[in-house]
Amino acid sequence: MLADKIPPAPYGLGAQLALSVALCCELEQAEASRWYGYLQSLPSEIVPIALLWGGRDALGSDPDGETAREWITGTEIERTLRGEDNQDPMDEIRGYYHSIAAHLLPASCTISHFLRAYSLVSSRAFMVDAYHGLSMVPIADAFNHITENHVHLECDFDVCPLCGSFAECTHDREDAPPASEEPMDWQSPSVPTVADTCDMVANRRIPAGSEVFNTYGARKSNAALLAWYGFALDGNENDVVGWDLSDVAQILGGETLAFPLPSEGSYKAVLRAWLSSLGSMVADESRLLYRPDLDGAEERSFSGPSTVLCVNSDAQLSVYLWVYLTICAATQELRLARGLGELVPEDGERLVALLGAVIAEQVALEKTLEEEVDEAAEPDPTAGADGTALLVMLRVAELVDTLCERRISKIGKHPSLSTAQVGEVFDGIPETHKKTRLAIAQVLAERSLLESCQEDWRELRDALQH
Q1: pLDDT digits (tens, 9 = 90+) for 147-158
Q2: Among 36, 114, 232, 456, whose Cα sits 20 to 30 Å from the Cα of 19?
């Protein structure tokens, strides 16, 4: 059997590739496949996921895809595709095809056929349970995705990985014989049979005659949707622009700073201490900052597409990025005040205290700027404030501006163009060039987000300089 020859992989790209081999084989069998009826419901062409844009072995000669690929340079789409390890997954996909898939599939299955199967798996398959693993599920994969979805899918993941039983089975016994020595249908008579189903559950009332939408994930950004599913939503609230910690350090290291940047270990130590302090709670009152929802993740990621060093769709800076930038600025002020060439361990407590003072002054200044005041009076918004905290805040505002400006200068095919000029380019792209339009729309969204963040922090900077 083909299934016995495919290297098993429980999750990730390996699981996608294994399933792609099976799907490619079934597609090639056509009417002879037991899944022929289901296979006819699948798109006949390669799903235009961004991963395959510009790939001639997938889409052949495709000027639209090639241009789109050029436009996603420096965007979150590119970061998403390269993943946590910053590697191009196409290298692994092509390698898998030539070293494994090509030897298992019929000779008529070229890499283009395999990539079509992969595009279907990427855009439709999902994890069912510990037995079935990543699977293509007929009917369940026919629903489109939106944030405010009508339904979601539920499966009992914790089943026996050897036979798929949700109820007690022979593999639960410590003295259970190998699978080949005892039938798989053994079940305790006291345990009722549980239906082996994947249930579609309604979240809310569904109006008659309306399209029923599913969710592919509660926090899918447009970058992720384009990378792995081939489409984007209008105004996706899950969009972010992120940085690896090493990228932030490299950008700031190019500045004429009078001090070395904090090491990753020093930053994380101060971050942990500050997050457990009362001062960190004040950050929740800032309109310029937000605390990313980690979705139950055991550890924060400081690199890759899930980095916590980011700006969200409301142009708010994550508290994790704010802490890093503030440590940089605060470290400078501490050194100037104490005349130290290097910070000693005891300075950690002083840094945490100064971070608390800075966020308190920042929130107070934000509230003052929001209030309607008598223009004739022109009150001083920083009167009575902590001078050192204000100096640090001013430097943070400048660092945010620099960080956003450097990122803007790296986004898209023509980063030297203004956002308005990029918009004109977008308007000139034919409707038939869907991939290019999607790519440029992503560039415009990211630039707009970063420019809005810049504008907010420049307002803070101007108030401090005034």
Answers
A1: 777 677 777 777
A2: 232
